[in-house]
Amino acid sequence: MLPTPSTSHVCFDRVYEPAEDSFLLLDTLSTSSEIAFLHNRFAQANSKQSTPPLILEVGVGSGVVLAFVAGNTSRIFGRNDILTLGTDINRFACQAASETVRKAIKDHDPSLFLDVVNADLASTIRANSVDVFIFNPPYVPAELPDLSRHDSFNVLSVGQKSTSFEQDSYLLELSYAGGEDGMAVTNRMLEQLPYILNPERGVAYLLLCAQNKPEEVKQRIRDWGTGWVAETVGVSGKKAGWEKLHIVRIWRNSMA
Amino acid sequence: MKLLTLNFLTCARKTCKSAPSSFPLHPREAELEVVQADVNLAFLKNILPRLMWGELRTITGELGLPTLPDTAPERSALFTAAAAVSETTTPGVDPEAIDAPEHPAPVEEPEETPTQTAIDLHRILLETCIKEGKLVCGNCGHEYAVKEGVANFLLPGHLV
Ligand SMILES: C[S@@+](CC[C@H](N)C(=O)[O-])C[C@H]1O[C@@H](n2cnc3c(N)ncnc32)[C@H](O)[C@@H]1O
Ligand SMILES: [Zn+2]
Predict the structure, then answer these.
(1) How far apart are CA A60 and CA A99, in angstroms?
(2) Which of A95, A116, A125 minimises the CB distance to B8?
(3) Residues of A with CB below 8 A from B11's CB?
(4) Which of A49, A118, A120 lies at the smallest CB-CB distance from B151?
């Protein structure tokens, strides 16, 4: 087992607490088959002088997943010159996750942490720049929170010492509520994905739950065009034959 | 927020994506701080081809930092290979001399020392941070705030 990052400094009243979904991502990224896939694509030994890969996690929450990757780069990628970047719509999560990643790098592999920026999905990321994309989205079929209050809930207002109960509830709702089929946020992200992913070596890991209809989602991705592949590479919570959570790996096979 | 991060970001507005002037974002009224980090020489050598040097030069100019050279340094300018186990390079010694034939360069992972060029590059990319200020899109003029080191790229509903 690779070391799991410490999140003891994070306040889980307003930032998503690592749960089964988060741990499924950690487990999947450390299976021998994923390590073999990622080494083959990125390891220094296989591609002398290849440029440092950029890992982007959208919706970092506590930062547990990004910190896991940043702290275990030599085991996962076979190199340490890995760049990590995160986004979250929740500013409190951005601050918490930065701390989590910094700690993991200090305690484990010395990879290169950029920043966690407060953004909507990957809307601010340059085209073709992402080598490894990771997203554990808000996937529960539940009504999306009313975003018109976001600006006031996303910060402590002047003189406010801690977040209000209403504010915390809103921020946690953002972390799980996924609209119709739990796919409203994920669908928007999938639209951006081909634009930000590096066309040659880009690969994405996306978490889905059974209610998201993973088979349909994968088929839609394959229909993006020639070369696009989407395969389940991790599952957890088997209930009566229904795998509750899936990790889907999305990438492009080169036309060679 | 580190200056290297700006190498990977553009304006968040959809309508700006196709406009070349939406990259890089331009820092304004920025308050900088230097946060010390360990030099990762392998990283510095490998990142060179990924750096948008001209844009980086623009940004450092706008921040009032010392002017960067017109072109990115060569990979070979970032390190000197130390000759023997305990021998360290003496300042002022021509790096070429160290690679002299009597000290054949090791094939794998030679003992390498970062040059001042590498240390300066490290300082700019990974240690110089925008603590407070704004990032402005060169195409639409939208200003994104940086507060306590966290940049906010969320757009008001009507701009998405
Ligand atoms: C299920 S949590 C996952 C958190 C963390 N990655 C983990 O695995 O434990 C989803 C995260 O996505 C964030 N999020 C929700 N909508 C978002 C959006 N439109 N843009 C960026 N982040 C978003 C939430 O704030 C939350 O931190
Ligand atoms: Zn713009």
Answers:
(1) 12
(2) A125
(3) 124
(4) A118
Kindly report the CA angle at A196 between A194 and A198, in degrees rounded to 5? 85
Summarised one tens digit per residue, pLDDT across range A14-30 is 999 999 999 999 999 99
CB–CB of B8 and A91 under 8 A? no
Q: Is the dihedral of CA B129, B131, B134, B135 positive or negative?
A: positive
CATH number of residue B133's parent domain: 2.20.25.10
More confidently predicted of B105 and A79:
A79
Global ipTM:
0.94
Q: How far apart are CA B98 and CA B113, in angstroms?
A: 12
Whole-number pLDDT of residue A158 = 81
| B137 domain residue, yes or no | yes
Q: Is residue B16 part of a domain?
A: yes
The reply to whether B160 falls in a domain is no
A160, A192, A226, B89 from A222: Cα distances, Å: 49, 15, 8, 55
- The widest CA-to-CA distance across chain B, in whole angstroms, is 69
A120 C-beta closer than 6 A to ligand 1: yes
Q: Residue B17 falls within a domain, yes or no? A: yes
Q: Indicate whether residue A90 lines ligand 1 (CB < 6 A).
A: yes
pLDDT above 50 (res B87): no
Count how many domains chain B has: 1
Identify which of A89, A120, A170, A191 to mutate to test ligand 1's pocket (most ligand atoms within 8 A of the CB). A89
